[in-house]
């Protein structure tokens, strides 16, 4: 029988001490990183903060094309009945649309484009694949927020991601301003793993994609992590790109403003960090939530 060592145990029966990060933030040799699209100063900011905001990464014409593609998907009545379409827990408003790179040729091309994926390769020091993609939508006045969490905690517990070697790329389709529930990030939090309390229920994704309850850190741990550098809103106009480390703590509030907030979201995982069996869940989540390389569900590390 094979055994996997779990360096980041979580979903525990009682509160446990934070765990220092084992992996580097920037992977691979420095010489190779110098050949990528991000500058040395941008890489240093990402390494320090755990995120990087790039204003105007995509132009207005490109953003209009992304919005038209999403609206076409959102308006498809058959797609709305598919499991990839997640509605708010208290309304019929679309909260997220998952696997957009599988549902749309345009979004598949965007995910595969070096323009978007090369920064991920530069940070991760390897080739990459799309672990997850989606549109997160917060309609005016009724879009609900996302509680504080580390994506890596979820991907480790429920998808079997072994190590912190993944990066998220979030593209603003609309303005993200202080009143419409922008992404909130905790600078420096990527260097500490916060174990959470509570076992993962069977098929928990059916609830968590609407409203997350398990996998949320203890408020005392959140207070300690944010005590020195606080919380930063990722504000920006349409076309801005936010890159953030898989373990950076983030959240967002409800959208109570008259302005919609929609973001494209692509997760790039290193091909050297492919998922295995979940570390703290009864079974893997569906492939449209988390892409699993062939054979990953059965694989065990010796």
Based on secondary structure, the structural category is alpha+beta
Order of helices and strands: EHHEHHEEHHHEEHEEEHHEEEE
| Unreliable parts | 295-302
Q: Count the strands?
A: 13
Distance between the termini: 9 Å
Rounded to an integer in angstroms, the radius of gyration calculated over CA atoms is 18 Å
Numbering strands along the chain, what is their spatial order in the largest sheet?
2-11-7-13-5-4-3
Helix content range: 25-40%
Strand count, sense and closure of the main sheet?
7 strands, antiparallel
Mean pLDDT: 93
Q: How many H/I helices?
A: 10
Provide a descriptive summary of the structure in words:
- The chain is α+β, with helices and mostly antiparallel strands and about 300 residues long.
- The chain contains ten helices and 13 strands.
- The chain has helices spanning about 30-35, 40-50, 60-75, 75-80, 100-105, 105-110, 115-125, 150-160, 205-210, 220-225, and strands spanning about 20, 50-55, 85, 95-100, 130-140, 145-150, 165-170, 185, 190-195, 230-235, 240-245, 250, 260-270.
- The strands form three sheets. The chain has a seven-stranded antiparallel beta sheet with strand order 2-11-7-13-5-4-3. The chain has a four-stranded antiparallel beta sheet with strand order 6-12-8-10, with helices on one face. The chain has a two-stranded antiparallel sheet with strand order 1-9.
- A hairpin with a 6-residue loop joins strand 3 and strand 4.
- The longest helix has 15 residues, at about 60-75.
- It is globular, with a radius of gyration of 18 Å.
- It starts with 18 loop residues before the first strand and ends in a 32-residue tail after the last strand.
- The model is unreliable at about 295-300 (pLDDT under 50).
């Amino acid at each position: 029988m094979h055994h996997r060592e779990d360096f980041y145990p979580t979903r525990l029966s009682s509160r446990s001490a934070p765990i220092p990060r084992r992996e580097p933030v920037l992977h691979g040799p420095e010489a190779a990183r110098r050949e990528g699209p991000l500058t040395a100063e941008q890489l240093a900011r990402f390494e320090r903060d755990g995120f990087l905001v790039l204003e105007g990464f995509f132009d207005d014409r490109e953003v209009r094309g992304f919005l038209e593609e999403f609206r076409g998907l959102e308006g498809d009545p058959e797609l709305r009945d598919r499991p990839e379409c997640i509605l708010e827990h208290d309304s019929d408003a679309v909260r997220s649309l998952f696997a957009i790179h599988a549902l749309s040729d345009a979004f598949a091309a965007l995910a595969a484009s070096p323009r978007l994926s090369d920064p991920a390769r530069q940070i991760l020091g390897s080739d990459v694949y799309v672990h997850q993609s989606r549109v997160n939508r917060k309609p005016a006045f009724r879009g609900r927020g996302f509680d504080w969490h580390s994506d890596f905690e979820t991907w480790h517990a429920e998808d079997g991601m072994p190590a912190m070697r993944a990066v998220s790329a979030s593209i603003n389709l609309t303005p993200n301003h202080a009143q419409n529930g922008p992404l909130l990030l905790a600078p420096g939090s990527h260097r500490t793993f916060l174990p959470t309390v509570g076992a993962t229920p069977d098929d928990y994704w059916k609830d968590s994609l609407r409203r997350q309850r398990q996998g949320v850190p203890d408020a005392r741990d959140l207070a300690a992590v944010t005590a020195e550098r606080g919380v930063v809103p990722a504000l920006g106009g349409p076309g801005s790109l936010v890159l953030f480390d898989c373990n950076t703590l983030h959240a967002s509030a409800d959208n109570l403003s008259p302005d919609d907030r929609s973001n494209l979201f692509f997760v790039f995982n290193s091909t050297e960090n492919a998922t295995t069996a979940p570390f703290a869940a009864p079974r893997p989540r569906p492939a449209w939530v988390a892409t699993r390389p062939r054979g990953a569900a059965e694989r065990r590390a010796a």
